Amino acid sequence: MSNKSVSLHIDDQLITVPEGTTILEAAQSMNIEIPTLCWAENLTPVNVCRLCVVEAEGARTLIPACSRTCEDGAAVKTNTDRVRENRRMVLELLDSANDLSQSDNLQELISDYGADSDRYTDPVKTTTPPKVEDDLFVRAYERCVLCYKCVEACGDDAQFTFAIAVAGRGFDAKISTEHDVPLPESACVYCGNCIGVCPTNALQFKTEFDMREAANWRPEEQSVTETICSYCGVGCTLELHTQDNQIVKVTSPADHSVTSGHLCVKGRFGWQYVQAPVYRAPSSDSEQSAK
Amino acid sequence: MPDLKFSDAEPDDHERALVDALVEQPPVVRQSERVVLGGIRRAGDARHLLLPGLHDLNASRGWISPGGLNYLAESLQVPPAEAFGVASFYDLFELEEPDMPGPRHHVCVDASCALADASGYAQQLRAEGKNVHEGPCLGQCENAPALFIQARSSDPVDMASTGETEQKFNATLANRLLRRFGLVDPQSLRSYREHGGYQALKTAIEVGQEEIIRLVTESGLTGRGGAAFPTGRKWRTVANHDHRQKYVVANADESEPGTFKDRMIIENDPFALIEAMTIAGFATGCTKGWIYIRGEYSTATKRLRSAIEQAYQAGLLGANVHDGAFTFDIELRQGAGAYICGEETALFNSIEGFRGEPRSKPPFPTESGLFGCPTIVNNPETLINVLDIATYGVDVFRSVGTPNSPGTKLFCVSGDVGNPGLYEAAFGLPLHELLEVAGVQIEDVQAVLLGGAAGRFLAPPNLDLPLSFEGTAERGATLGSGAVTVFSKDVDLWSVLVRLAKFFRDESCGQCVPCRIGTTRQHEVLLQIRGTQPNESERVLLSDLSMVMGDSSICGLGHTAASAVQSAFTEGLVGVQT
């Protein structure tokens, strides 16, 4: 990062930021809200969802705020009619193609921007039955909006496993292993970091999937407990999500200095022992009462 | 370097031999169960061999087997999921064993070929028991309906190589770029030299790098692929970089429906492209050139390959060009059936062994292009203009054309045309004059699609349009790649529009939302309203789709995916009450 700084106007306010700062970062520092979908603080921006488009003076097309860096003297508007219309269409297109019912963030944006996917008659949709290949997680690609986050987390933004990539082209493009082999046969190491970054719940814990199937998933009743993973000495922060006093999933805060939100298979999935019945060796009465 | 996991799928002996021949040294030596000599890093550096490797594998069995793909991926240290992602990106690669044996017959069903009853032709081939695939433009529109036979274990065949078609070009309006067509033997360096070849390079070396860039800049030469960016400015930017490695890339992935000029340049005058690239390399300090040619252009590829070899043998390429004046190498890459790879940054990704998805710009190629190095990308037509500029100077070059569009342009005229083919004309020629020379009955014209699928329709009142950058821009049209597709009055334009929309739906890379879903929705809506007079909400829907694709897509494909459709409405060609 250079020491140079650049000054620009965002929504008519002047701001000076270090060179290399993205428009999104600058806007966030000014408390200007720009919606995002494929962007995450712990991943490299890929600017594919186009939800964060903004209008820059002199540019022919809109530009993605998540990846475009601030230029000296630029004038950027984040909330013009043109910007809002484009975001509305992006949301409408997504809603016309995917099941977004499990993404609260997108549902909120759809209603904020007035996106109306009912305008389309018989639109082709992404319809893939959920892939349930193991006891740890489920891939329900009918909800996949191809934000590339899981590919990045699996690849050189976190895990360096490269078990999945985008395959195919156009509307038929999808996240896939080589020749679509089941995950257990692929390079997957079950770190679950793809679940951690998925914005639409296309990737989810098997526990959550089963509970939803049984109509027993009640997020409003869940609580989150922070703890440190006990498996090794790294000291990853875990957020244990519990419902009815049972752990239902595990996450880590994306802004955490140790994990950046990413975990390994043990931290992510190795909680069953906490809930297993405890067998104790026979002990004397005095020891019992001391506890 | 990550420790990659590969599958247990094994290649057959032939596949193994193909990959071993391509990837020079086996990078991994398994001495024993415990001792493995890696060289993994080195293997990863050769990822650009992924695309040629996929070509070899696909040709050997007619499809890419899991074993072959796995072995290629391991040899190049590419994650198998990524290798699969790359292979599945291209139309010319099969990832499952085909149901039908025998070569795959690709029949073009885009505009000009549809007019020549391509579907009937495909039907007929099917009846003959052939394995037929109806697909996008094959760049042989002057000989519609076009056919490309993707053979196994032998060279693929396009129509030029069957000898059944002739080279259709016409230099009566102007004769610069076509000068050697039909006269020079495209497979002989000696013949090229006899027809003035390599004079331009000699002149360039005499006058020096600075002077050549000055000439190209002052000539006003602009890119002929559609964007019309000033060539001199591109060259200047790259020349100013003192990066350790810089590249010249010839973008011969001509896939714009209705366009076949670059194919004809390479088929008829391949040395011209090589000489022009060499000059570009000399002028800007690039020591390596890449030519990315359409996978469907088999004759052009063969001739180009032979021309490159001859140029190496004659010391016109390699470490000591012109007796040690400078170094310039050329490497050839074949596409594999993806329109989007003609987008310059998608082309880089394709060469580098990644999916042909466009990159975000900036940074522009002149700053960070192929392999992250400063790169000049020009198409063959743009490049061969440099030969005349170097030889005859700026004044002669600018003596034809208009002040803002100097020089000549190649036009690919096809469709309902008496004499379809490649026409050279000075910029500024009115469109109807070009059409008349090509044997079009003007009074019979319903519409002209100028600039290919990414272009715009013109109704008869606009046929006086001057064919120059400023002349077309004034009327909201574009010259694009120089494709001129003519539709007579008996053509059902709705079916043309539906096919155009289908083309973009098929060719969208799928990376960004506006284009991936927008092109799909546009096609669906057109299918639903074809033949009708669309109501207000249908029109709004189409224009909303046009807006989001035009404003918010990553690259030019999405930006222009609705322009032809929209122009058909604004020109009053469809959807009007009669």
Give the CATH superfamily of the largest domain in chain A.
ADC-like domains
Low-pLDDT segments of chain B: none
What does the overall shape of chain B look like? globular
Largest sheet of chain A: 5 strands, mixed
The largest sheet of chain B has its strands arranged as: 7-14-13-17-15-16
Domain count of chain A: the total is 3
How far apart, in Å, are the first and last alpha carbons of chain A? 56 Å
Structural class of chain A: alpha+beta
End-to-end separation of chain B in angstroms reads 66 Å
Outline:
Chain A is α+β, with helices and mostly antiparallel strands and about 290 residues long. Chain A is built from 9 helices and 13 strands. Chain A is globular.
Describe this structure as you would to a colleague.
- The complex is a heterodimer of chains A (291) and B (578).
- Chain A has 291 residues and is α+β, with helices and mostly antiparallel strands.
- Chain A has three domains: 5-79, Ubiquitin-like (UB roll) (Roll), CATH 3.10.20.740; 83-119, no CATH class; 131-275, N-terminal domain of TfIIb (Single Sheet), CATH 2.20.25.
- In chain A, 23% of the residues lie in helices and 19% in strands.
- Chain A has helices at 23-29, 81-97, 104-113, 149-154, 193-197, 206-213, 265-269, 272-275, 285-290, and strands at 5-10, 13-18, 53-56, 63-64, 75-77, 131-132, 137-139, 165-167, 174-176, 203-205, 223-228, 237-243, 246-251.
- In chain A, the strands form four sheets. In chain A, strands 2-1-5-3-4 form a five-stranded mixed sheet, with helices on both faces. Chain A has a three-stranded antiparallel sheet with strand order 6-7-10.
- The radius of gyration of chain A is 22 Å and the shape is globular.
- Chain B is an alpha/beta fold and 578 residues long.
- Chain B folds into five domains: 13-87, no CATH class; 104-162, 3-Layer(aba) Sandwich (Glutaredoxin), CATH 3.40.30; 189-393, NADH-ubiquinone oxidoreductase 51kDa subunit (Rossmann fold), CATH 3.40.50; 408-488, Ubiquitin-like (UB roll) (Roll), CATH 3.10.20.600; 493-570, de novo design (two linked rop proteins).
- Chain B is built from 25 helices and 17 strands.
- In chain B, the strands form four sheets. Chain B has a six-stranded mixed sheet with strand order 7-14-13-17-15-16. Chain B has a four-stranded mixed sheet with strand order 4-3-5-6.
- In chain B, helix 1 packs antiparallel against helix 3 and helix 13 (261-268) packs across helix 14 (270-284).
- The termini of chain B are far apart.
- The mean pLDDT of chain B is 94.
- Classes of the chains: A alpha+beta (291), B alpha/beta (578).
- The interface between A and B is large, with 52 and 52 residues.
